[in-house]
Amino acid sequence: MIIERLQLTNYRNYESLNLEFSPQINVLIGENAQGKTNILESIYVLAMAKSHRTSNDKELIRWETDYGKIKGEIKNRYGKIPLELLVTKKGKKGKVNHIEQLKLTNYIGQINVVMFAPEDLNIVKGNPQVRRRFIDMEIGQISPVYLHELLNFQKLLKQRNQLLKNYQGKPKIDEVLFDIYTEQYIQSAVQIIRKRFEFVDLLQEWAEKIHSGISQGIEKLKIKYLTTKGIEKDWTANEIATYLAEKFTQVKEKEMERGLTLIGPHRDDLQFFVNDYDVQTYGSQGQQRTTALSLKLAEIELIKQETGEAPILLLDDVLSELDDFRQSHLLNTIQEEVQTFVTTTSVDGIHHETIQHAKLFHVKQGKVEI
Questions:
Q1: Is the confidence at residue 328, as pLDDT, over 90?
Q2: 51 contact partners, CB below 8 Å, separation of at least 6
Q3: How far apart (Å, rounded) are the C-alpha atoms in residues 2 and 19?
Q4: Quick one: pLDDT at residue 366?
Q5: Crossing angle of helices 175-214/285-307, nearest 10°?
């Protein structure tokens, strides 16, 4: 899968931009704050209908304009697909093959992308929210059904929290309504939990091999999915639902006191172990970076396995964050197989032959020269 052409209108600092890309390596060179990352971000937004940098869509629209537009010509094994995403201050609309999609969940999944930026090191050492987002974004790319269920879960969580807040501190709650909300919430939570268990198993399969290769066989990576304590990955949907119902009975008073839902996928986490030691707590910076790199390379292999095509790889100023060995391992992995976009202030310190044969784009003050 590749993106052959990208057109931007009123996107970030670009009034108008039209670029054709190499099917292999594309390097965007320029000083900081010139617009390199904006181009990578636009490809990510075209794929995911959301930014990896901000949750405020208005920031994507060029200053003093009413809308931003991203158009891309995608080529996959079935042929070419024109995609378009319109971003306005009221929301987003996506088109596939010039046909507007009624829901963005129907639009997402036309392109698969893997983004690796310096902040992705926080997958290992950041807070649980970062790791939940990582899981959800990756499963969402390969499973539109999961994305739909996740949106449903978030809606049900919001409704249940609002009900708890309304009755916070009061002696009684509307039991019938509360039970209905809880039952619906549990059914949705079960779907999320089971899909996450499945995804982490697949991720483990690839990441363990890759990590072993980067560490030259010295280290063994294990990934553990942390959900509501007591739930096992081999449980059936009914077993998980029954268990969650029991747990909710136990925490009902606490939830009413705090006005919050205290159990569920919104509190899940991932834990990483290298040679049985928790990397987040005890790992060196090198081990944390190797773990993050292994996860990103595993994403590529997992998407290839699930979709039959390699995703597009976006490397935002990440090569400078990796030492020569990890840098070489990354570039060896993608060589001639994965269309890759790299942002950097200079290619002088990158000696790998893959970069030497790349198509170069020089970015300065929102203008791009080849």
A1: no
A2: 41, 44, 45, 57, 59, 60
A3: 13
A4: 84
A5: 110
